Amino acid sequence: MITKTILSLGAGYVGGPTMAKIAEKCKDVTVYVGDLNQGRINAWNSDQLPVFEPGLDEIVKKCRGKNLHFIVPTEEHYKKADMIFVSVNTPTKSYGEGAGMAADLQYWELAARGIGQYARPGTIIVEKSTVPVKTAEAISVILNSEGVRYPVLSNPEFLAEGTAMKDLENPDRVLIGHEEDEQGRMAAGELKALYARWVPEEKILLTNVWSSELSKLTANAFLAQRVSSINSISALCEKTGASVAEISRAIGTDSRIGAKFLEASVGFGGSCFKKDILNLSYLSAQFGLPEVSEYWHSVVRMNDYQQERFVKQILSEQFNTVAGKKIVILGFAFKPDTNDTRESPAIYVCKRLLEEKAHLAIVDPQALGEAKTDLKGIDENVVYTEDAYAAAEGAHALVILTHWRQFGELDYRKIYSAMKKPAFLFDGRRLLDREKMYEIGFNVYSIGAKPLKKF
Ligand SMILES: NC(=O)c1ccc[n+]([C@@H]2O[C@H](COP(=O)([O-])OP(=O)(O)OC[C@H]3O[C@@H](n4cnc5c(N)ncnc54)[C@H](O)[C@@H]3O)[C@@H](O)[C@H]2O)c1
Predict the structure, then answer these.
(1) Which residues are catalytically annotated?
(2) What CATH number has the domain spanning 209-455?
(3) Taking Cα atoms as reference points, which of 413, 391, 373, 412 lies closest to residue 329?
(4) Phi, psi (deg, nearest 5) at residue 291
(5) How far is CA 67 from CA 5, 12, 20, 54, in A?
(6) Residue numbers in the chain where pLDDT is lower than 50
């Protein structure tokens, strides 16, 4: 292997953890993690990392200043790099052609132009961001316009936030898409050698570039589709008295279906599912496949429906008004063990409740800073706290939006006695034992089960 120096563009939820893992496993390789955002780089160099992931702190502390460096990239860093990973954000476009559906590639293109300007010819470019099919080809055109050659590989990241370090340590597979020429094969071999330091060879799959790019979009679309499918059934359960928990168990034991991603909830969140499905849907429409486009779009529509259905229940069950009522929001992150709130159902639910003039007390162990940013300008009637008991004082309702382990361990008798009566519990994550909560005195509304009401 000849890779001695790596530069990563993008020090976010993907760039930070993946590069920390590479630095940990490849002590002889110098890893520069670059970002245009000086504030983010400062945070990576501090004791309060900008990304919360179990196990990340330890690795960063072990490697930082040795072979792992967080920097704002300069010409020098590009020139030194043998391999450049691009892990920049690729959000849904909010303007112009394809607005609300297509991926916004402005950050990717900017990164590519920086590479074209400074990097040595032959530097291997690794596309880690999730991008539409054929992006690598477009990037190759930008990079190779002066007759200089940079091999471009597609190496999509499959880590899940909250378990990123475990996923990186022991991935189900590593996908490397390469151009089918001599240079492409050599570049793929080089990246494979890097991963082979800790990933068994049979788990490193080489494909063509397009298969690799489309595999990532497809994986996210399939996962989200499972959530939307079980959520659609949760609505039916609430009407009929069937229990979605029992249905999940019953169908999850079918070996053809499998047990994972069958948890009914207020809806999926995170920066990737929605944007990647919308992107897949947009691409399908662009390629003249309206039925395919519509099929995938319905997965997102079901998710929107589930969130709104949940809000409507909070309103209707509290006598059609929450104006001036205090509501405790347990959890703002889109899932436990992360501080990421992008596309979190909590954003939608809180905004809707604030529109209805509710007063909110938001409790989250890691994501309060992010919650403040998300609700900036509309949070006059919001308090943010890590103390669930203080939040419950005089509250009318509890709304569970993230299944943090800590929330399962609270003393709900104490919480109940601090609340106004009748006290309502809306469990958007099916975290708590509904019978027990009903016994304590709550009116209990848990996704996918018939409500247990005191009146
Ligand atoms: N978050 C996930 O769980 C996850 C998982 C797999 C794949 N992905 C994909 O990985 C990509 C990155 O996601 P993320 O969650 O890490 O995003 P993020 O927003 O947390 O991080 C992206 C970073 O890139 C920086 N950046 C933008 N343009 C730059 C440039 N030209 N040079 C240097 N830095 C630049 C931004 O300042 C930002 O800090 C996306 O395409 C996403 O779809 C994300």
Answers:
(1) 272
(2) 3.40.50.720
(3) 391
(4) -70, -40
(5) 9, 19, 9, 21
(6) none
Answer for the pair 251, 257: CB distance below 8 angstroms, yes or no: yes
- Chain centre distance of CA 451: 30
Minimum CA distance residue for ligand 1 atom 13: 89
Q: Model-level pTM? A: 0.95
Please give the helix or strand (H or E) that residue 154 lies within, else none. Answer: strand 152-154
CATH number of 5-199: 3.40.50.720
Cβ of 13 closer than 6 Å to ligand 1, yes or no, is: yes
Amino acid 138: pLDDT: 80
- Does the CB atom of residue 398 touch ligand 1 within 6 A? no
Nearest protein Cα to ligand 1, atom 12: 89
Which burial class, exposed, middle or buried, applies to 317 when counting CB atoms under 10 A from its CB (0-12, 13-18, 19+)?
A: middle
252: which residues sit within 8 A by CB, 6+ positions away? 258, 259, 260, 262
CA of 158, closest atom in ligand 1 = 6
Confidence at residue 132, expressed as pLDDT on a 0 to 100 scale: 86
Q: Cα angle at 217 between 216 and 219, to 5 degrees? A: 65
pLDDT score, position 1: 61
Query: Using a 6 Å cutoff on CB, does residue 161 contact ligand 1?
Result: yes
CA–CA distance, 229 with 127 (Å, rounded to integer): 31
- φ and ψ of 228, to 5 deg: -65, -35
Residue limits of CATH 3.40.50.720 in the chain = 5-199, 209-455
